[in-house]
Structure prediction request, 155 residues.
Amino acid sequence: MNEELTTSTALVESTALREAQARAAKLSLTGDVGTRVLRQIITVFGPSPEDILSAVTWLGEMKPKNITEAMLYSQMICVHELAMKFLGRISSPNHVSAEMEQRLTKQASWLMRVFTEQQQAVRCCKGKAGQQMVTVKHMYVGNGGQALVGVVKKR
Prediction:
């Protein structure tokens, strides 16, 4: 019975790892760089094949277009995972001390702010950062003054 369980667990693990590798290959995360990104995710998620598969699936949903985006997205996935782990420890039935609860809350809060900053970095990478536009509705030019209306480009 124990041997059957070990065999089935190994089969599930190898299947999940193969699936994770296949999905990573679709994201063009192959070679040394892809292996390194996956190792970094595993460091946070742990060696469980199901968790690795989840992380790679999340990365796939984010659709990185280059290695910079893949690295940023993997950071975001790990930051989110750690923040949720900290919050989970606070709300677990195994009560933590008030001091530990305060520390975990502070760390989770900090990680969630980092996640928000990473979202802004993604927008900047994609060229969708808050570009500002000024609309002039009224313009008054006094006696002797000059005004230029239109697009001004530097040469």
Q: What stands out?
A: The two ends are 79 Å apart (CA to CA). Residues 2-125 form one domain. The chain has one domain: 2-125. The first helix runs from residue 2 to 26.
